Amino acid sequence: MSDARRRSPLLSWTVLAPPVALLVLALTWGHHIDTWLAVVIALVLAGAVLAAVHHAEVVAHRVGEPYGSLLLAVAVTVIEVGLIVTLMISGGSESETASLARDTVFAAVMITTNGIVGLSLLLGAIRSGTARFHPEGSGAALATVATLSALALVLPTFTTSARGPEFSGSQLTFAALASLALYGMFVFTQTGRHRDFFLPVESRGSADPDGHAPPATTRAALVSLGLLLVALVGVVGLAKVESHTIESAVDAVGFPPSFVGVVIALLVLAPETLAAGRASRRRQVQISLNLAYGSAMASIGLTIPAIAVASIWLKGPLLLGLGSTQLVLLAITVCVSILTVVPGRATRLQGGVHLVLLAAFVFLAINP
After folding, report:
1. pLDDT of 357-368, one tens digit each?
2. Phi, psi of 66 (to 5 degrees)
3. Which of 123, 150, 291, 354 is most exposed, with the fewest beta carbons within 10 Å of its own?
């Protein structure tokens, strides 16, 4: 009997990790976490992240690109948005919840457009000398991210209908509808007539865009889809469970409380980061950029409509406008990203520039 027949697929760690994460989440949600338990949760969280990446790749291999990267980005963001809205409705003081959506969304934008993009370009250039991608698809994605960021995070700083960096009710409604419209148009473009703009660029010696192994069966893909959703719920939920430990650690080292949101955003975006890095190592940089810009787009395009609906029950201000330092970082990111995307190829230098911008964001979040 062969090893493949003796080894049951139900005993694979990628199958066991998601339900274990969900079980740990159910047992620890709302409870005080000791240090030793926080370490165990961190290990379970890491396993859930790796399992999510595996199952996302199985599903992506079955449905093809760009549907695979779109599915992972939307799945993570939907769960993240649910967590944000839940925290805004039921948790924390007014001062803590007022800027929660803004801080989380901005952190997601900076991590995706600088962290994931920079890492992907660096790994792709190291592997092939030059990272190649479609400027048409990546440029369209970047334009959508920039427009969504301006509508949701920049304009509230300068509007005058409401006091402070926030929208009035009608302005928030417009921003929500515009965000949904933009995101919907992009998804239609990405999956419709211009789908080729979002497929990996074929180059000599590169792997087949869909990988060497044959696609999984429909049944196996559906199982992986279910396990992917379970793993993502576990990742986001355990990140929230760990937030109290993270808050204590942040307070102990003297960092500002807002830095907790950056750490949680890093944890939540870990599946996309790992998936993008693996795609770049296979010379599929376009898939990595699809994940990065798609995650940034979904984070804004789904969060703003969700909090617009939640604002019916929310009390107190809803601060969306960025501060001066954040505005400068966003402006530099957009300008550098344009210069990176337009040629359709990038060297290690461009990847390094984006990673330095991410480092600047993290440093200024620690030392504003």
Report:
1. 999 999 998 888
2. -90, 10
3. 150
